[in-house]
Amino acid sequence: PLLVISTASLEALGESAQRAIPMDRFRPNIVLEGCDPHAEDVWKQIQIGDVQLQALGPCGRCTIVEVAQGQGKRDEISVYGALV
After folding, report:
1. Distances (CA, A) of 17 to 10, 20, 44, 81
2. Is 4 left (phi over 0), alpha (psi -120 to 50) or beta?
3. Quick one: CA dihedral 51, 58, 38, 82, positive or negative?
4. pLDDT, one tens digit for every residue, the chain (84 residues)
5. Which regions of 1-84 does DSSP assign to beta strands (E)?
6. How many other C-beta atoms can be found within 10 angstroms of the C-beta atom of residue 9?
7. Residue 80: enclosing H or E segment and its boundaries?
8. How large is the C-alpha radius of gyration of the chain?
9. 1 and 60 in contact (C-beta within 8 Å)?
10. Which pTM value belongs to this model?
């Protein structure tokens, strides 16, 4: 499976969390631009060139999204409230 996220979704999460959330927190394989926030959550297929990908569904989140990747330190304020 590949993890797909859009920059618009990450920006919406940052607004909800009231702080910037770096993309590396989610470790996506594919980053999309030019779509509405969370549009990728409901897509059934994604086509990139001649390659067509089938959506499997949302990815379960572990607590790694609360860890600053460069420092290995957990955030003082949880991002999970903004995710739901």
Report:
1. 10, 8, 28, 8
2. beta
3. negative
4. 899 999 999 999 999 888 888 998 888 999 999 999 999 999 999 999 999 999 998 887 777 788 888 888 888 877 776 665
5. 4-6, 30-32, 45-48, 51-54, 67-68, 73-74
6. 21
7. helix 80-83
8. 13
9. no
10. 0.82
